[in-house]
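Lab notebook, bench 4. The sequencing result for the construct came back, and we need a structural model before the next group meeting so we can plan mutations. Quick request posted to the team channel:

Model the 3D structure of this chain.
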Amino acid sequence: MLSGIKVLDFTQYLPGPYATLRLSDLGAEVIKIERPQGDPARELSEGKVFQGNNRNKGSLAFDLKNPSDQQKVMDLIHSADVLVESFRPGVMASLGFGYEELKHLHPRLVYCSLTGYGQTGELSPLGSHDLNYMALSGMLSQLKDESGRPIHPTLTFADLIGGLAASEAIIAALLKREREGDGSYIDLAITDAVMSLLTTHMQYPGGNGVPELDGSIISYHIYETKDQRFVSLAALEPKFWSNFCEAVQKQEWLPYHFEKAEQGNQIYEEVCQLFQSRSFTDWVAFSEKIDCCLAPIYEINELKDSLYNQQRRMIVQSPWNDLQVFTAAKPNELHAPPRLNSSALNQK
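Done. Here's the predicted structure in token form:
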């Protein structure tokens, strides 16, 4: 879909590389522009962050403060369709690669600045990471334990959401260029992207979203199984609740579709007992047979062999013997993440 589109990726760590991974999976040619020491993600957590987000990309290393290297990079930019960078505001301009300068030299360039807090505002020059974006956007306040304390996610939601939003904006800008002929500048703040998910929550004075979806009713709840595993039941619609009740031969539960999921509620306690009477494997088989919005809560290391992945193949064993996760599309070929500065320099 993006075959023939050339992307220069000046970003590091996760949000930018995830954005350009999505573009690469859609067919774009992505070349990482790295410092001489390489993207720090090459060393972070034994290089696993780099391995997971940089397949099918090229790599060129430059000292962006060196005049000779600056000219080489400028030559590359002239042949590019997209430039993505994630430096703090003003850094690219100080190096001679700011959008205001480049748009006169390359009017069709799509230029995306992906930062935590955007290019404007008092917070824009501050350092920040995923946990900060989750906190400032209000998203972290929606992930709390039973005592009301925010939990610390193991998945960097904000970084990934920011990368997804950046790839979406870049594709929209490429479409605009196709129609109108000129490039675009995209100021993509990761905090903006995360905050944009709160459209429904803002309609509720308490800010906690749809009450029926917060786990407080028996038909939309997480249940423990006999072997201390967990499954998710989301039978909101009457037909799904009916299918569930009939499949477990508990038609007497039908009137209690929206009963509170709290101790002391007899129906809730009976539902809990039912789930605890069967193993996780039993409920997996049940969920694949009965149309009642039931799904097992898999651990990450179980996903590859799940029925869903066997049929959709979102996670695959790579030729270099790790597991790779596809994003916006499934590329025809898989190439290992690039060695530093391993691409041929070609400005044509």
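The chain has twelve helices and eleven strands.
Will bring this to the meeting.
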